[in-house]
């Protein structure tokens, strides 16, 4: 007797309450179901069921086995499915959440590259600057930027991002360039409410953190909006490097107070703890590490 087949019959009998129910579920004869249970009991050296004419009850050994056997069989099925699929493309739906600006600029193009390699993969991309609850919203994978706190999620670091002080050349020509962090108090500063303290910017001089109070007429909740306003000459913005990297290259924006150190934060892929992570989720993480956007921000 195959041990796996015996366990499948045992689980079916325990869940249906009879050998006949197990036989119907597994499309085998009643006699064969009973035979499998008998051989399983002989192999394990224990009695699993109390058999009476009216009902089928489990022994203590049977209760111990039913507590573990279904999960073991599920894991075996998932493992063999993964092995069969290893040479095939990714399938199913990947539900991925990411911050709005980072998602639009880097995650969405990365997913297109992934889908060119795996055309049968469906993608459901959720862009939001709030921390989405992965369990309640059915999310397989999320991109988080910054401190994770005491998160129960599993994290894989993809890269790092530095928050930069930037302004347009036109703004600096009209208002002058700040020479010290304290000079920011007299400038038009574009505040991003996604930051924990948008009215105070954390800067470092001689490795000592310094919270500089800033003010301005404009407050937004988007790194891309802050970038757009800075390009338009409306003030100095405090933006993540991924939002302004093309503009720094083109000269539309320039760095301000370059000698002052600014915060550097981690870019992480996070997912729920589980005994089995879907292959498409694992493959997407590896794709991001090896071929995707995050290598630009190491």
From TrEMBL:
- HTH lysR-type domain residues are 1-59
Is Transcription given among the entry's keywords? Answer: yes
The record's listing under PROSITE patterns reads:
HTH_LYSR
Q: What is the lineage of its organism?
A: Bacteria, Pseudomonadati, Pseudomonadota, Alphaproteobacteria, Rhodospirillales
Q: Does the keyword Methyltransferase apply?
A: no
* Database matches in CDD domains: PBP2_CrgA_like (cd08422)
Q: Which GO terms describe its molecular function?
A: DNA-binding transcription factor activity; sequence-specific DNA binding
Per the record, the GO terms for biological process are: DNA-templated transcription
Could you identify this protein by its name?
A: LysR family transcriptional regulator
